[in-house]
Design a protein that fits this description.
Blueprint: E1 25-29, E2 35-39, H1 42-50, E3 54-55, H2 58-67, H3 71-77, H4 92-101, H5 106-110, H6 113-125, E4 133-134, H7 135-140, H8 142-152, H9 159-170, H10 175-198, H11 204-210, H12 219-235, H13 237-249, H14 252-260, H15 265-275, E5 285-287, E6 291-293, E7 296-298, E8 303-306, H16 308-312, H17 346-363, E9 364-369, E10 391-396
Parallel strand pairs: 2-8
Antiparallel strand pairs: 1-2, 3-5, 4-10, 5-8, 6-7, 9-10
The protein binds protoporphyrin IX containing FE.
Protoporphyrin IX containing FE (HEM) binds near residues 148, 283, 336 and 348.
């Protein structure tokens, strides 16, 4: 069954491409008068994500926007809070990433399994049976946000408040809404960093502020790192859980196969990531010099948007790509990106998904959509692919 998709939308609202749609690399004329290059197709996306000539430094991004008189976005990219590892290039990127790398290795993440199981079980136990349940609200949102906040040492009471701010990063909002969110987040995170400096705990932010080697981070760098980890740590995994459960309930044969053979679960999670990728587009890049991709040359100093979803649905890489098949080899998908910015949190996201899907099937013998699939609403976002709500009817096992 194919799930209805919203019309393609690219920040900040493009006109129609002026090249044939079959081109994998093409310019899009944006509403505010500048051109953005869109890269699609598996081979092209993979090349673009790992090509060092496609750069990300936030200061240069701000300068390029200034050159094009795009004031609102330029002001945002110029802010210290957005100068984090995902908006830097080597060698700065390497220095920032290595400061947190050790906290997210396969081994360190596996040690979190009992805690993730506990949080999941508590959330599932709180689900009532007397009506439809919104799985986003009940499970897909609270689990990853609780986990990343515990890792970073963010107090429980503050979680919903800052979510309203990180939402502004991933949803399509006006520049002034984004600016207000950034101002609030900036104040909140700097207060938190100062608090960790005064009384450090056993968490990642405390670890960063107490580090005193020559690579030690400034308070601004710690704040930017915290914002990136908080936003990336929960705005994405919520979609893996939501989209994965939706894929199962709309493919009852696959759901039954997974129930019958749990050894399919790790492969199923890779297929969810491929089939309904939580992140649609990679974050914005620019060409440091002219770059040829897929036979098209993108001139120097151009903005480039790389479409992950198209790579994961490229029939040359994945035969019959719009068919969800838990037994297919979905390996090599681009859902976590590729190259030096490959997702730092991939082991954590996979573990959270493994626990969630396993426990859901253990706890509920019946899971089905509580409304027709056409009535589901997707979040208004260029970057993300995720549901507003996922109403389900679920029957507990005896
Ligand atoms: C299913 C869940 C997730 C998906 C689909 C996802 C996807 C991605 C993608 C596509 C990128 C690369 C973006 C680009 O190159 O423009 C990325 C980078 C990143 N992700 Fe994730 N992510 C997920 C979960 C997480 C979690 C749980 C964390 C928490 C630690 C995290 C932290 C990061 C960081 C820090 C980066 C930047 C890495 C760098 O610049 O070197 N992600 N993620």
């Amino acid at each position: 069954m194919s799930i209805p998709r919203p019309a393609a939308e690219v920040w900040p609202a493009p006109s129609r491409p002026d090249r044939p749609a079959s081109d994998t690399v093409r310019p899009l004329n944006m509403a505010n008068g500048f051109t953005l290059w869109l890269v699609t197709g598996y081979a092209q996306v993979r090349q673009a994500l790992s090509d060092p000539r496609l750069a990300k430094d936030s200061h240069t991004t701000a300068q390029l926007l200034r050159d094009r008189s795009i004031q609102a976005h330029q002001a945002l990219f110029g802010q210290a809070l957005l100068h984090h590892m995902l908006n830097t290039d080597p060698p700065e990127h390497r220095r920032l990433r290595q400061m947190v790398n050790k906290g997210f290795t396969q081994r360190r993440v596996q040690a979190l399994r009992p805690r993730i199981e506990r949080i999941t079980d508590d959330l599932l136990a709180a689900i009532g049976e007397d009506g439809p349940v919104d799985l986003i609200e009940a499970l897909a949102f609270p689990l990853p946000i609780t986990v990343i906040c515990e890792l970073l040492g963010v107090p429980e009471a503050d979680r919903r408040t800052f979510r309203s701010w990180t939402n502004a990063f991933v949803l399509s909002v006006e520049p002034d809404v984004l600016q207000n969110a950034l101002t609030s987040l900036d104040r909140y995170i700097h207060d938190l960093v100062a608090e960790k400096r005064r009384s450090p705990g056993d968490d990642i932010i405390s670890g960063l502020v107490t580090e005193d080697g020559e690579d030690a981070l400034t308070d601004d760098e710690v704040a930017a790192m915290a914002v990136l980890l908080l936003a990336a740590g929960h705005e994405t995994t919520v979609n893996l859980i939501g989209n994965g459960v939706l894929a199962l309930v709309t493919h009852p044969d696959q759901l039954a196969a997974l129930r019958a053979d749990r050894s399919l679960l790790p492969g199923a999670i890779e297929e969810f990531l491929r089939f309904e990728s939580p992140v649609n587009q990679a974050t914005l890049r620019y060409t440091d010099e002219a770059v040829e991709i897929g036979g098209t040359t993108i001139p120097a100093g151009e903005f480039v948007m790389i479409n992950i979803d198209s790579a994961n649905h490229d029939p040359e890489r994945y035969p019959d790509p719009d068919r969800m098949d838990l037994r297919r080899d979905a390996g090599g998908h681009m859902a976590f990106g590729h190259g030096i910015h490959f997702c730092l949190g991939a082991p954590l996201a996979r573990l959270e998904a493994e626990v969630v899907f396993g426990r859901l099937l253990d706890t509920f013998g019946g899971i089905e959509l509580a409304l027709p699939v056409e009535r589901l609403e997707w979040r208004p976002s260029t970057l993300m692919r995720g549901l507003e709500k996922l109403p389900l009817r679920m029957v507990r096992r005896p």
